Amino acid sequence: MLKVHRDICGYCGCCVSVCPEGALELIDAYLCIEKTCTSCGICAKVCPLGALEVVDEK
Amino acid sequence: MKNKYDILIIGGGPAGAIAAKTAAEKGLSVCLVEKRPAIGAPVRCAEGIGKEALHEFIDPDPCWISAEMTGASIVAPDGFLMKLESQLAGNKVGYILDRKIFDRELVWMAAEAGADIAVKTRASAPIRENGCVKGARLESCGTVTDVTAEVVIAADGVESKFSRWCGIDTTVPVREIMSSVQYVLADIEIDPHSTVFYLGNEVAPEGYLWVFPKGERTANVGIGISGKKSGRDHRAKDYLDRFVKKTFPHGKPIEYIAGGVSVCRPLDCTVADGLIIAGDAARVVDPLTGGGIYNGMFTGRLAAQVAADCIAKGNVSKKSLMVYDRTWREAKMGKSIERNYHIKEYMIKLPDTKLNEIIHSVSKINLTEFTTLSLIKEIIRVNPKLMLELGALAASIR
Questions:
Q1: What CATH code would you report for B4-44+100-172+267-330?
Q2: pTM here?
Q3: Is residue A32 less than 8 Å (CB to CB) from chain B?
Q4: Which spans in B45-193 are helix H?
């Protein structure tokens, strides 16, 4: 599952541009994750600040 | 805001604003929507633009010019500094803008030309009829409104979603997103009239680090690295913080922003039935420099011109709007993107030793024309061997 560390996120939209599923959306200063997210981790890799993390669902 | 316009523009950056202004001046009914509550903020930009490029759209105004540049420097991976100067003494070669004010000015001009403007209003879905884009569902402060338009111009930036909702794949390849961070650093020792670019795999892998002056002792100090090179403990922020600690240990950050800059090729097609895509959303950023202000304004203006023509002819089909796609690709801007894409692909493969060698070959360059192309031409002149390495690409640079 993809987790947004909101205290780190700079709501810049870098992650949105690389998401192959189109599962991320930046609504003003709020990053939304849609159900189509596959937890592939591409966004977590490119995030300039390290605000995204794929975590174990349990 | 009305429920029906000739043109609906998604995004209030330079592309959207110039599109709105152009269309309104042609007498069309226009609405520009910006999802953020303020035009121009937060800034997602290093704010540099060439003098000629800016003048093509607007006369410079001290209100939104932070600093005037007369030269630039490139720092090699080993620390060697190459100076670039304009051959004409004292000549301004470019500006560092204050985007918060600049973007407002452009939207203001659009508003005065007659365009309707809505902030804190986001497009949440396209309205489509038989596959043709006919407008957008807009959400603003809890209210939802359907607004129809003859043509929608998607100028919704790097995080663009609108064209994706219309079935166009806008995904930027991981290796071609510049993962970026920038501080506005105050109280630092800089040359206030020269930009500085730092290259090298230790400094900024497959990207560069920049110091763009915003005043006598203040600068945008930022970095972009390839998404491919980014990861835990080696992110853009890690590289930038290391550089700042070493170079400007007493600098005081007065702004901290992040961003993504696409350095891929533009979208395969930048139009659809009833839709034109402009600016960063169309992925028309210069792949070598990462500059997008001019290309945004260029495509924004063209989008409005073509939309106006097609509306007048009563045909807003993809085929009809294709004039836009063809025109910008054939323009100097499109050709420059294609050429610079190849140069970028060559550059990112260079080891630091080779970069050092190239930069050492010329310690000072006087450019007659202050462009990346004339810089590259000059470098090739001094390093004729490069011509062979560049192969087919060389022909486009001559």
A1: 3.50.50.60
A2: 0.96
A3: no
A4: 51-55, 99-112, 162-165
